[in-house]
UniProtKB/TrEMBL annotation:
Record InterPro entries: Amidohydro-rel, Gln_synt_N_sf, Gln_synth/guanido_kin_cat_dom, Gln_synth_cat_dom, Metal_Hydrolase
Protein source organism: Cryomyces minteri
Record family assignment: Belongs to the glutamine synthetase family.
Domain of life: Eukaryota
GS catalytic domain boundaries: 546-860
GO process terms (BP): glutamine biosynthetic process
Xref: SUPFAM superfamilies: Glutamine synthetase/guanido kinase, Metallo-dependent hydrolases
Lineage, opening ranks: Eukaryota, Fungi, Dikarya, Ascomycota, Pezizomycotina
Protein name: Glutamine synthetase
GO molecular function: glutamine synthetase activity; hydrolase activity
PROSITE patterns attached to this UniProt entry: GS_CATALYTIC (PS51987)
Amino acid sequence: MQHSPLLDDLRTVIRTCPIIDNHAHNLLRPTELGTYAFETITTEAHGEALKDTFKSLSHIRAARQLRELYDCDAAASWDEIVTKRAQTLKDDSNGLIKRCLEGTHCILMDDGLDSDTVHEYDWHDQFTTSKTKRIVRIETVAQDLMEVLTSGEQSSWHEDNYESRDDDINRIWTQFKEAFLADIEAAISDPEVVGFKSVICYRTGLDIRPTNAETIESIRASFKEWVVSCRRGEYRLEHKGFNDALVELLLRSLSDSGKAKPVQFHTGLGDADIDLLLSNPAHLQPLIERYPTVPFVLLHSSYPYTREAGYLATVFKNVYLDIGEVFPMLSRDGQLSIVRQALELVPTSKLLWSTDGHWFPETYWLANKQFREVLEEVLVDYVHKEDLSASQAIDFVRDVMFNNSNDLYALGETLQIDTATTSSKAMSRGSADGRQLLENFLQREPAVEFVCIQWLDYMATTRTRILPIAEFSRLVEKDAGIGISRGNTGTLQNDAVTPACTPVGQMYVRPDLSTLRRTHAQHPLPSATVHAFFHDGPGQILPECPRGLLQRLLQWAKDEHDITFLVGFEIEVTFLRRVSGPSATFEPWTTNQAWSSLTDEQYGTSLPLLAEIVKALLGIGIAVQQFHTESGQGQYEFVLAPLPALEAVDTLLQARQVVQQLAASHGLRATLHPTPLHPPEREGAFFVAGVLAHLDAVCAFTLPEAASYGRVRDDAWMGGTWVAWGSQNRETPLRRVERGRWEVRCLDGLANMYLAVAALLGAGLLGLREGSGAAAGAGVKDCLQNPSQLTPEQREELGITRRLPPDIHTSLAALEQDGALAEVLGARLVGDYVAMKRAEQTMLGDMGEEERRVWLLERY
């Protein structure tokens, strides 16, 4: 599979997505750290069986990862790891906890596992982004209540006379039931409580039998057994019948309350006091069917019954599968198997993540680390096999790690993650690939002594750093970039500062070695050019990188819709002579010409230069399909061959440089200005791709200057003023040439083509996401006539209801208001672009008309 920026986005999201841990437990207080053996972090074994855990794959893997956590030597023994851990806790216990809980947004905490040795649930808030919420364990509630109810009667109540005191059993049952239901109702109303839990799986099994919990008759024997145990000070609740009734009381209360908070059930994996056969969640099916409005969460992957749990989560709307605890309790292969089994059948909207972290902060760290590793392996494999697109896999990660729990438990949290911000690892080649590409290039072009690293800023100004080949080779060897201030992206063509400019922060211009191209033979330096991405320090592409944005959107189109784009550019350029004098200006190079003409003046004056340009382009590998005169004075067009979209823009920029540099060698200025002379005869710039629905906002990128709107007029073969499309219609902004081939006419050479094409693609992808193509998305029909010549009624029938923006200010306002397009392109990029364009327009507005025209001609 080719390099995919969205696949890099997937990896980044897996590694960085904040986690809502939907089931975990309290950490031990510092004075209680020795209460439990640390090696239990990877096993449910206890006692003599615990001695063998050191030979398990799960323990060996965890030990290796803990060496990383504590910065131990790679060969450190378990005893050395434990010693280093003890020292770390002594030096900075909170620092260790903070590191272990890094990436945890909030914890839903079952605080009923232990109360004497652990911190309160809300103590953990200091280490998470959002506050910890409670999961109420009903068996603990029951045990605490019974301890209160029976503690004052020891002198009058003896085990040998229970059989004759049914009235006392009835009284205690009544008191217990009323108190228990009151506690449950209080928890249902308590905003700190987001769910309940039962460990009946541990106690009497999941084969919960229907009971009439309103009376004691059906459970008298089991309740009496428990009371006997309680009088001996043994409050553990493991009496079949009564345990079942307790669950029924909870479910009935939730069902009747109208506030059906989820109920978590321990299923599957547990320590030795569990009946493994009765831990199969399939036993819960009758109970699930009886309470369809109560959400059931099957905890701990139900291992080894993951498939059974997956079936229940698939066929019952109110059942969810938690894929926790097997991390870090199982080997890597076991974990991979669990995740794959869960995905065999279960919709991704029904899967939840939890660490089952307890007692030791490392249990959180290991679980999250191993889950992210395994999830990345599974999902990347699915993307490679095209079972999922990268975008679908990204949505899956966000849902399982955050959104599903957020919705199920009604937490009201906001997922703060932006693929464009945390996204793609370098789309430029890695150091090994880069070295090979450079080596191959220099074998073909041994005379190259310099490399021009280039990037296009928001104002469509090409910025350049020139490096001797030895220094460039060192840069490639280190897989590094040139450090510049992030504020450099916010300056205008003359380096004037705008509101988008900040002095804080560093970025790196990193070359994409796949774009290396030798400069033309007449260039004063024996050199090559290479295009670049903007990166942060760790090597991720920044959201404000125009080239990176286009690459990301192209990959989105491929992954989501299996669409690829060929883009063909026609360079429409006007050659001007500088006129010396008090106020320097320009005049056309040739005047005796018309569209596709070849006059004597052209033959003797322009043809030699045009031929020189085309030969130079062909000589450096840029294909030219044809070239010809346009109707404007001094105006000519070079038609480049269509290429994949990103390569097409890269090639366009390199070709423009050749045109302008060779023109300059003849004392001419080759400008891309849409209206360089007065009055313009006709203007045209031709591109492929796009849709109409967001065209008002797109024009802020495609028609980026006030001068651009001089060509937005009717009856001039310039694309007209109406938002419309038509087959072979040159009076519409979008001309359909043939199936799959479009010409965009509302675009000129002053645009940053990375941003312009990205905006067109982004608008088109939004249309596809909404289930329609460009024309249908805009509600406009094929217009086979000049829209300006139609009556209002005829335009209405074709869905032609609005005009293109009349000026750059209207386009910028439309871009600001187009939230959907801003989301696709990146809110920061759009905000900075709008701020810079407004600052630029203010600067240009302060100039006189002729000064402004010359200023732009000098730069474009």
